[in-house]
Amino acid sequence: MYFGFSFIGLLFLIMLFIPNVLWNKFQPTDYEKYSKRENIILLAFERVGQVLVCIFSLFCGVNFNLSICVAIPFIILILYEFYWIKYFKSNKTMGDMYSDFLKIPLPGATLPVLAFVFLGICSDNILLIFSTIIWELVILVFI
């Protein structure tokens, strides 16, 4: 594992955050009603996992040449972007947000986790893999 800044990690985080920033402006109808029911413990695990993924993506770097190994998580994030395009073109209901994409359940949550697990594997970044597993625990509970 390499310690230092990772531009690939930065690119992946930008691809993750852009749709989420837009989502704040285009939340599903009645989202507030559903968000009040979220389990606080699961939400805490999700937030801790997300922060650790950001840190370990950026600073416990991805130090390798661009290869097929990087292509896999990149393609997964491209699918994530297409999922969000589908959502933003929809009526923006909770059903639209939680609908499958290419038979992938909860794609807004599943795809980024898969991308960062593969990124961690490709870069031998055990800290990124571990933090992504923390993040993934929340998704496993909901699937």
Tally of strands: 0
Low-confidence stretches: none
Please outline the major beta sheet. Answer: none
**Mean pLDDT, all residues:** 85
**Kindly, what is the distance between the CA atoms of the first and last residues, rounded to a whole number of angstroms?**
32 Å
Helix share, percent? over 70%
Count of individual domains? 1
Radius of gyration: 15 Å
The class by helix and strand makeup works out as mainly alpha
Helical segment count: 7
What is the element string, with H for helices and E for strands?
Answer: HHHHHHH
Strand content: under 5%
Coarse morphology = globular
Keywords: Membrane, Transmembrane, Transmembrane helix
Transmembrane segments: 6-23, 44-64, 70-88, 100-119
List its traits.
7 helices, globular, transmembrane helix, membrane
In words, what does this structure look like?
It is a single chain. This protein is mainly alpha-helical and 143 residues long. It has one domain (7-142). Helix content is 73%, strand content 0%. It contains seven helices and no strands. It is globular, with a radius of gyration of 15 Å. Keywords: Membrane, Transmembrane, Transmembrane helix.
SSE map:
Elements: H1 7-25, H2 31-35, H3 40-59, H4 68-89, H5 94-98, H6 107-122, H7 126-142
Helix pairs in contact: 1-3, 1-4, 3-7, 4-6, 6-7
